[in-house]
Design goal:
By secondary structure, the protein is an alpha/beta fold. It folds into two domains: 176 residues, Periplasmic binding protein-like II (D-Maltodextrin-Binding Protein, domain 2, 3-Layer(aba) Sandwich); 100 residues, Periplasmic binding protein-like II (D-Maltodextrin-Binding Protein, domain 2), CATH 3.40.190. Strand 8, helix 7 and strand 9 form a beta-alpha-beta unit.
């Protein structure tokens, strides 16, 4: 991926060590399959029966991810996707009797690739929105929201941020929806707009606040919480969690793939695997009991 702003080398290295994220430019396919020798996930025959024939016959589930959003999806030292979102998507693959074939790419490239049948599923912390539902389906797996973080001791108020520089990851809902709406409120009131600082990866977003280029950042609540947990001497949560909405795996619109992923996820919910994955990540408060489709209402 192309990073729009260069980071001071030592600061960037420190942050990437804390997040466990390795930056690798460009789309990166990886054929690393699920480890069938250690996995305890059992294939769900009913879910397998719903798969499109060509996917079932291939033996693989082609999954696109941005892998720049720790702790949900990021890269290990070898460039392989890891994180609780990756673990959950891998478990879905295993339920379907398929090996996950990951392709790392820019966030805004994933939905178009699904539409053109270049991917079977997107697993990249997608917020399920009405606008995105026009292009793909979402199989919902978590309730999340947005949360701001700012330097410890700052007086940043998300509801009074006119004239401030706020960092976001490009093309996320914080970039495309939240910041335009907040900035418009400022200009409508005769105040200075919010200056939005965009980056391709969350580590760079976080770093921009630490080194003072931005006053705060806005991200999905699991991501913000993880950054504060790792950098609690430098960052703190500011404001309340807001705009709660479901995350979803993206699949081709009105497809059998959607039905198969929904059935696989529901099976993971029913056998306890799903909650185990969320508990390990400390986000079980957002757990669902039913795998819904297109539950996003905004």
């Amino acid at each position: 991926m192309k990073i729009r702003y260069a980071l001071p080398a030592m600061a960037a290295a420190a942050l990437l060590t804390l997040t466990g994220c390795t930056n690798t430019d460009g789309a990166t396919p990886t054929d690393k399959p699920a480890d069938s020798g250690t996995s305890t996930v059992k294939v769900d025959d009913a879910a397998v029966a719903l798969l499109p024939a060509e996917v079932k016959d291939s033996g693989e589930l082609r999954i696109g991810t941005d892998a720049e959003y720790p702790p949900n999806e990021y890269k290990d030292a070898d460039g392989n996707p890891i994180g609780w979102g990756v673990e959950l998507a891998t478990a879905v693959s295993e339920k379907l009797g398929l090996a996950p074939k990951w392709e790392i790419m820019g966030f805004d490239s994933i939905i178009p690739r699904i539409q053109e049948n270049g991917l079977d599923m997107g697993s990249s912390s997608f917020t399920d929105t009405k606008e995105r539902q026009a292009s793909v389906d979402f199989v919902n797996f978590l309730n999340a929201g947005s949360q701001w973080a700012a330097p410890v001791g700052s007086d940043v108020d998300p509801n009074n941020a006119c004239g401030l520089t706020i960092a976001v990851q490009a093309t996320t809902v914080q970039d495309t929806e939240e910041m335009p709406a907040r900035s418009k409120e400022c200009t409508d009131a005769g105040k200075e707009p919010i200056e939005v600082l965009r980056f391709d990866g969350q580590p760079e977003v976080t770093q921009s606040v630490i080194d003072g280029r931005a006053a705060a950042f806005s991200a999905d609540s699991p991501v913000t919480g993880d950054a504060v947990a790792k950098l609690g001497d430098k960052l703190e949560l500011v404001g309340e969690l807001f705009d709660a909405a479901p995350y979803g795996f993206a699949t081709q619109k009105d497809s059998d793939m959607t039905k198969a992923v929904q059935a696989a996820l529901q099976s993971l919910m029913d056998d306890g695997t799903y909650v185990e994955i969320l508990k390990k990540a400390g986000i079980e408060s957002g757990a669902l009991t039913t795998a819904t489709i297109n539950a996003g209402e905004n």
